[in-house]
Design brief:
Structural class: mainly beta
Order of helices and strands: EEEHEEEEEEEEEEEEEE
Number of helices: 1
Distance between the termini: 20 Å
Radius of gyration: 27 Å
Pfam family, one: Monjiviricetes_fusion
Strand content: over 45%
Largest sheet: 9 strands, antiparallel
């Protein structure tokens, strides 16, 4: 056995990129552009929604329910976030607000790119940091971090182990021979192993 400086924890990542366009729905379903109507951004969804998304593969944004979202994959969906349209070129507007403004009587359509990942990350005990594959370091006690690509990352608190059994790596498990000197006790004890490799 030897002391280990690293531990592992399971982490969940969610990244939702929205590319939305807003059109005003006027009289007789005439549409027109609006100021700040086209925007592409990363939308944070929060820990509860991220965990639920990993468990169920379903997410609701605006009026749209996005389903069959797969973990450890990038998923693409089209959605109407506000208002509605029909195949016979009619629209019905609604009120819509996001981080970039507020609009009335509009139809909001979007393409949504959702990336879900779950995997083990390293924790460096001496610094108390979680190390993500991108190289980003975050404090382990925060249980949340934004990765370099904008992914929300969540992990559970580390269990408390007062005996510190988790701080050792087993280098060999099996039969060993102990060689210790009979006369000179200052010579170190040696352990030998024989493997069949």
């Amino acid at each position: 056995m030897q002391l280990s400086d690293y531990d592992k924890t399971l982490e969940l990542q969610c990244r939702m990129e929205i590319n939305r366009i807003i059109n005003y729905c006027g009289m007789h379903s005439h549409v027109s552009i609006v100021h700040n109507g086209r925007r592409e951004y990363i939308q944070e969804i929060g820990e509860q929604a991220c965990r639920r998304l990993h468990e169920t593969g379903t997410l609701t944004i605006g009026n749209a329910v996005l389903d069959q979202i797969k973990s450890n994959a990038t998923n693409h969906r089209s959605a109407t976030l506000a208002g509605s349209t029909t195949v016979d070129e009619k629209c019905s507007g609604a009120q819509y607000t996001d981080g970039y403004g507020s609009w009335d009587n509009v139809v909001v359509q979007a393409t949504v790119k959702i990336t879900l990942r779950s995997f083990e990350f390293s924790i460096k005990r001496t610094t108390g940091h979680v190390i993500m594959p991108s190289g980003t370091h975050c404090k382990v006690f925060s249980r949340f971090c934004i990765d370099a690509d904008g992914s929300e990352t969540y992990w559970l608190p580390m269990p408390i182990d007062n005996c510190h059994f988790d701080r050792y790596d087993i280098l060999y498990e099996g039969v060993a021979t102990k060689l210790s000197p009979r006369i000179n006790q200052s010579i170190p004890t040696v352990y030998t192993v024989t493997t069949q490799e």
